[in-house]
Each structure stands twice: as structure tokens, then as C-alpha cells.
Amino acid sequence: MKEINVFCFGFGQVAKNFVKKLSIEKYHINLSTTSRSESSKKTFKGINYNSYLFNSEKFDQNLVVKLKEADHILVSIPPENKEDIVVKNFSKFLESTKVKWITYLSATSVYGDHKGEWVNENSQTNPISIKGVARLKAENSWVFLERNKKLPVQIFRLSGIYSNEKNILVRLKSGDVKLINKKNHYFSRIHVDDIANILFKSLSKFKSGEIYNLSDDKPSSSKEITLYGAKMLNIENIEIDVIKSETLKSFYNESKKVSNKKVKNYFSYNLIFPSYIEGLNYIRDNFM
What we know:
- The chain has 288 residues and is α/β, with parallel strands linked by helices.
- It has an 8-stranded mixed β-sheet, with helices on both faces.
- Helix content is 36%, strand content 20%.
């Protein structure tokens, strides 16, 4: 049985699905995580682990010991106050660890608006949202550590994440969806299981300094996905919404199609859910 010592900064759906994948692949997992709540011992999928307090104000000093023992570190905490709080608090500790794999989970918001055109990892990063600007700044801080401190860092830029539990079908059933029709607005998404599988693939084919987009094959409009989901659930009338909230305005100010060619080619990976069609059909048939 392979052993792996994993430290997860943040333990949300991506980190949990990654650990779940490790368990399925019969790894013996030594797991530590961080949380905004007080430090405690927890269990996930039969794995006993320590969750350590860490926020922008303070952290449990005991986590440093576990961090130095880790051979794999997954960072899924978003920037706070426009900076990466992991780099801010732990860059010096990371330099003295035995880590051989650091993965920073960024977002495709770093590309900004490309007028509905395709973007790849070589495209211009010109974020226009507050979150996108912060993400790019965080990315750059990890790139600096990789280049100047020789830390083994890869970056995954994630498209909109959906899962078996969190998706348009669940929202439609709860009545929490309004139809937004904006011409030439495209965005990409990816199922969390595909993210976990690619993270797992990268354990055996890690290349420091690389950046990869994680998205499916079919960038689509919000309207297209909403109507497809409504048809699946036999929902006929959906209220048309006017974009009011700042979060929505920010989202709809950006239109791009995110290419996944690099990640699929490098890791020789075939998506389980190449588009929302396969993903939503699977969710309906197995979880609804």
C-alpha cells in the first residue's frame, strides 16, 4: 500500500474529493487540514485527521510541525485582502520542508474578458474582477516561490465547479434559479470528480512550474445550461432575471471559452464528464 502525507490548506469539496480519490486508489493517507474554526480531531471517509485553526488573523502553531512532515501540499484557500495568506504566513516554513508536490488551485477569472473567444495557458491574463485580480496576484506569489526558492509548485486554474451535490438541477428543484439571457456570454465548468482525477494523475507526472486550465470540452452560456436542466426536470416556466448583484455583474462582464487541451494531453486524461450534458444526466440518474 502506498503511503502519502497530505496537508490541505482548506478542506472544501475539491480537497475532499481528492482525498476520496486517494482512498479509492488504496493509499494509506496521513492527512492534516486547516479550517477557520478551532483545531480539532475529525474523521472523513474513515480517515482520522487533525484540522488546525488558520485564518487571516492567526493560526495554530501545531500545524507547522505537520506542515514540515508533509510530502504533498494542496492549497485551495482563496486570497484574503488581495493576498495569499498561505504564502504570507508559511513561505519560510515551506522552504525548509521535504515537500515534493505543491498544488495551488487558482481560477480562470485571471483571464478576464476575452469577448467569447478561446483562451489557453499562454493567453493574456487581464482580470477585471476584484477576485480575478487577487487570484493573479496569488498565482504570482507561488510562481515567485517556485522560481526563486525552488519549491515544487504547479497551478491549476479551475473553471466553474459543479458536483453531484451542488449543481443546476438541485438549484432548479429548489426554485433558486432565474434565467439570464446575455448574448455571446460563454463560460466553462468542470465536474469535481474530473478535478480529483487530474490531481491524482499529477502525483505520478508532476512538473514544477507548470500552469494548467481545468475545464470541460463545452463552454456554454448560462441560458443554455439552465434550459437544458429545466427540460430534464420538466420545468416549464423560469423567471427571467435582470442582473443586479455585483457578483453577478462581475461574472457576466467576462466571456471566454477555456481550452483544456494542455491538461488532457499532458496527463493523457479523458474526462468522465466532457460536458454539462453527460454530467447532468449522470446526476439526474443517480442522485435525483
